[in-house]
Every structure is written in C-alpha cells, then in structure tokens.
Amino acid sequence: MIRRAIPPIVVLFVLGTIADVFIGYSPFPGYGAAIGLFGCIVIVVVSKWLGTVLLDRPEDYYPDEVPPDLQPDLLPPEHPEHQPHARRGRR
Amino acid sequence: MSDLLLHPTLPFVVAALLVRLLPHKLGHVVMVLAPVVAMAQIWQLEAGTSVQLDYLDWQLEVLRVDALSTPFGVVFAIAALIAGIYGMATQLGPERSAALLYAGAAFGVVYAGDLLTFFLFWEIKAIASTFLILARRTERSGRSGMRYLFVHIFGGKLLLAGIIVHVWQTGSLSFTAFEPGVAAYLIMVACMLSAAVPPLHAWLADAYPEATIAGTVFLSAYTTKAAVYALARGFPGFEILIYLGVIMALYGVVYAVLENDIRRLLGYHIVSQVGYMVAAVGIGTELAINGATAHAFAHILYKGLLLMGAGAVLYATGRAKMSELGGIANRMRLVLALYMVGAVSISSFPLFSGFVSKELVVAAASGEGLVWLVLLLKVASVGTFLHTGLKLPFGTWVGKKGLGPRLNEKGPVYVGAVPASMIAAMALSAALNFLLGIRPQLLYDLMPYPVTYDVYTLGKVVEKSQILLFTALAFWLLLPKLHAKAVVSVDTDWVYRKLPGYVRELWRRVVTRTTPSKRSTVPPIRITTEPAGPAEPVGAGEPEDAAEPLGAGEPVGPADPARNAAGIAGDAATAAATAPSTATTTTVATSEAPVTPRRGVLARLFSPAAGPPPLIATWVLGGLMLLGAIILLFASLTP
Q1: Does ipTM come in above 0.85?
Q2: Looking at residues B503-516, what average pLDDT do you find?
Q3: List of chain A residues whose C-beta atoms are within 8 Å of the C-beta of residue B485
Q4: Is the CB of B458 less than 8 angstroms away from the CB of A19?
Q5: CB-based contact B83:B217 (threshold 8 Å)
Q6: DSSP H helical segments within B177-239, as ranges?
Q7: What sections of B483-614 are H helices per DSSP?
Q8: Contacts of residue B261 in chain A, CB cutoff 8 Å?
C-alpha cells in the first residue's frame, strides 16, 4: 500500500515545488509541504508526549462523572437501545 | 423610536413565548419564522440607525446598527434558522424556548450601543444558554450545566465590575473602543472568559458535549462569537490578544489530539478557531478586523455543520466516544458526506468558506510583518485538518472496524435512521459553506471595512494544497499513534472540579488532627457479616453519589465498577466522616472515621455531604441576604 502511494506523492511534491519556484509566493520552494508534514508530526508527537507526562488520566478521574460509553437518553424512542431520562422526576 | 420595533431580539422573544403556548407541530413553523423575520428586520435596518432611551440619569442606546454589528446579526440569524431546523426532531418546548431566548439575547449583545444594555443581554444569554445544557436532564448534564453557569456568572460579575469602574472614571456608558486601564482590563477578561481564552476556556469543553443534540449546535454559534464581537468592538489593537490568540489556536489543537469524545474534540477546535479571531482582533488593522469578522461568520456555519454531523451520529447510535464507534460509514454515507463538507471548510480547502476567511487573518498578520504568527497559525491550521478532517471522521465512521456492513443486522453498533430535518439543516449549512467558498465577495461585501483582497491567487492555492496533502500523508504515517484511547485529559477545570475535594480532604485531616481524642475514644466499627473492603462506605450518607450507575443501559466506565468504587472511596470516607448519623452506626461500617453526633442546621448548610439542608434554613439565609441587599440599595440611594 505504502509503496503504491509513493510515486504519486513524489510527483505531486515535485510539481508543487516547481510551481513554487515559478510563482514565488512561498518563502522557499516546498514550504507548504514542509509545514504540512513536519507541522503534523510535531503536533502529534508533542501532544502525545504532553498527554503521557501530564494530561491523561483514567476515565474515572472525576469519580462522579465517568464518560458513559452509551448515552441512551439522546436516542429516539424507536431505537432499540433507547432509554428515557434515567433520573427524570427523581427530585 | 419606531426603529426599536425592528430590533432583531423581538421576534425571538415572541417566538420563545409562542413555542411554549402553541402545539408542538406549530412550534416547527415558529422556529423557522423567527430567524426569517429577524433577517428581514436586519435587512431593513440601515447602518447608522440608533435608538436612544432615557433611564434614570443615563441615556441608553438599546439599538445601534453599524458595519461591525450587521455581519454578526446576519450570521446569527442564519445560525438560528439552521439550528432550529436541525432541532425539529429532538427539541421540545422548554428547550426551544431557551434556545430562542439565547439567540435573541445574542442579538441584543451585538446591537447594544451602551454598556448597560450590553451587560443585561450578556447575562440573559448566559442564563438562557445554561438551560440548553440542563434540558438534557441527566445527572452529568446537571453538574456540567451548573459549572457552566457558575463560570459565566463569574465572568458576568467581572464585566459588571469593569463597567462600574469605567462609568466611575469616564462618566460615559457608551460602548466604544476602550483606553487601556483597570476598567478595560476587567471587561476584557470577562470577554476573554466568554471567548474561551485559556486558562478561562475549560467551561466550553466541559459543557458543550453534555448539552442536548441541537443545544450544542445553538451553543457553538453564539457565546464565543458574541465575545469575539465584543473584543473587536472594544479592544482592537490590544497587543496581548495576539499572543493569547495564537496560544488558543495551538492549545485547542493539542487537546484535540488527546480527546476521545467527538463533541468535546470539536469543542476544543472551537477554542482553536476562535484563537484566529482573537489574534486578528489583537492585530487590530482594518484587514485584521475584517478577518476576525469573516472568520467568525464562516466559523459559525462550518462548526455548526460539524457539530450537526456529530449530533447525527449521537442520535443514530447513542455513542460519542471514538473508542466505541467505527464501522458505521456504510450506514451513514449522507451524514459522512455532509460532515466532510464542514471538515474541508474548517481545514480551509480552496473553494470552501474557511479558506476565504482564514486567509484574511493570515494576510493581516503577514501585512504587519508578524512572520512567527503566520507560521504558528499555519501550523494550527495543519492541526485543524488533522483532527476535524482526518482523525475525527476516520475514528467515528471507520476506525479499526473498517467501513462496516451496509445493514444493521451484521454491525456491532446499531445505527438508527437520521431524520430528514437533520439532513436538511446540514445540507443547507453545507450549501452555504460552498457558496461562500466560490463567491467570497458575498462574504466580503458584509465586512465592516471594504475588502480589496484577492484570495484566489495561484500562490496561495498551491501552498495550501501542499500543506493539506502533506498533512494527510503525515496522518497516514502516524495512524497507529492516533487511535483514540479511552482517557480523559485534565484541563483548567481541574481547579473547580478536583481541587475543592483536595482542600476539603486537607481540612478534614487538619481538623481530625486537632482533635485526636475523638479518634482514640471511638473504636472503629466493623460489620462482620460483610467483607471489609474499600467500597463499603458507598451509600452511607450520600444518596447523590454517582457510583451507582445512572441506569441499566448507561454503564459507568469500562465495565469495571470495582475500580470505580475504589476511586470514590476517598470521597465516601469523607462523606461517612461528616455525614450526620442518619443511618444507624452499624451500617456506617467503616474504618477510623469517628461517628459524629447530629449537627446543627448551619453546619449542614455548609457540608454538602450531609445532604440538602432543611428548606427553612435555605429560606432564612436567602431572606437575610435579600434584606442585606435591600438595605445596601437604600443606603446607596440616600444622598
């Protein structure tokens, strides 16, 4: 799969770079490609690192508010998993 | 004065009453008519219209129409129309009433010419929007909604304090660009809170995913954008907003990588996108204010579309976590296609609305020579495409399960039908996004300053295409790292969600240490018939405890009630320690916690673990506070 995708990507990259040379809008040829590729990698790596060292917690971190897998109160009545408001009229 | 009848808030207030009085089916008509009437009124109002009213010693300007308020008014009306159509299948009378009042108050905010009117509508907006969250009527939405209200009321009080200082210093109530000073900064912080500028942003990601399906669509349109309007009106060129804006743009992107809930992920992208607008306001040139306004306009359209797509998934499957979804693409093709229109718009693909608005902001930044800002905004837009354009649709509709079966019998997730009204609203929004993309002049003609900017030059299109193509390539390479994990990420709402518990715990320990005699005299009581475990104290004195599942069909956590119960053991121990012994001592079977005698009314008022205080105490306390307020009022009126 990856091997088949390499030729079109290389072709598009070369075409884009040549276009950059002639148009002269970007600071250097291939500027957009560099931002796209490295920006994306930096965002993912930095965020994942921040998540691991600082931000990620188990789902029951706020014990009263574990995010539910299913939110049945939002389903229409004809849906097989529908449940009306679980706590309606409790107080 | 007759122009006051053209105030766009009026049809919404009338409609908010009508949807409660008329039968449900006629409510559909009201939901469509109110924004259409408002749109007609905006059409009639010419720039420069001003309606003044005398109130006490002040002259209020309840309606001021100018080039900055008109584009916001127009897009607010469009948003109300789209969200109203979207909500036809799910919204009942009370929720509709709140939504219309909320939208109407947002019009009041952008058409207010003086600070008092501005403040009043600002507060009505905050309160009405809370009911869109509370309308969900679950315990989670209740907690989340009250936190939302708490944060916004706090912001409203900051705004009021700023206004009072401003009037005291200048003697003027008119809402124009502020001079730097205490008053300006107070008002700015209030607006920043409402615009979700970190660290005051956590209410957004906390509350929006807990609202009703259509409620989230309404919420995404008004609160942050009205705040952007207020910033653009009062604080153009305040340099600090540039830095805060770019921090916002990247902050939202970082959290979106970690997020699992699709509506919360889109919430963090609101933070990111509003960052562009805030940065543009900070630049403050004519081009930048145009950029902020245009981006707010386009953002309301495409973010509404994205949240409608997420809402349709929630309506059809009942699931919002990417770790639970996937394998439904073949059963929701139309929704996926319409969502992707929103996704390519927010990612600023050429020919869609995000491109023509975001490029204005970037052009304003490069026009001022802020090279670093241009670079960081472009990186943030990479993150936008990565999450809303690639990660979210992939994780929601495809995931590890592939495209999934075409019929429900074979699929692991049952996909219900999506009503035609939802599809229609999404299609309308998608059409508008495409229209603005191919006819940017329609958007530019609405802007506060004349736009002479040509967005479709070859250089910009080639660069943007490269960015998008190579972001997609990087996503593909990093795909194994990007599968959603079932975690929550701590954010600044930790300060009011977790810290009070720690403080309470610390307080309890300090108090217990100062009275060691109690601990030694009261031996620990244990039940012999039940095994001693950390989960025992559950239900001792706190019936509200969410350790009990919210219902049979709403499992708490990943099938691990024991771990969950252990998680709250700390709280429960506190509860057992402070609770009055309503239960008999044998059932309060716990550890070393001393059995406290029945406490006084006042003590129970301040100890939530003891359950709600008696009604009479609440009334007495409220009455005393009201009395104090009246006395203060009279004291302030006497010369």
Answers
A1: yes
A2: 77
A3: 56
A4: yes
A5: yes
A6: 182-194, 202-207, 213-234
A7: 494-497, 499-514, 516-521, 561-567, 569-578, 601-605
A8: 67
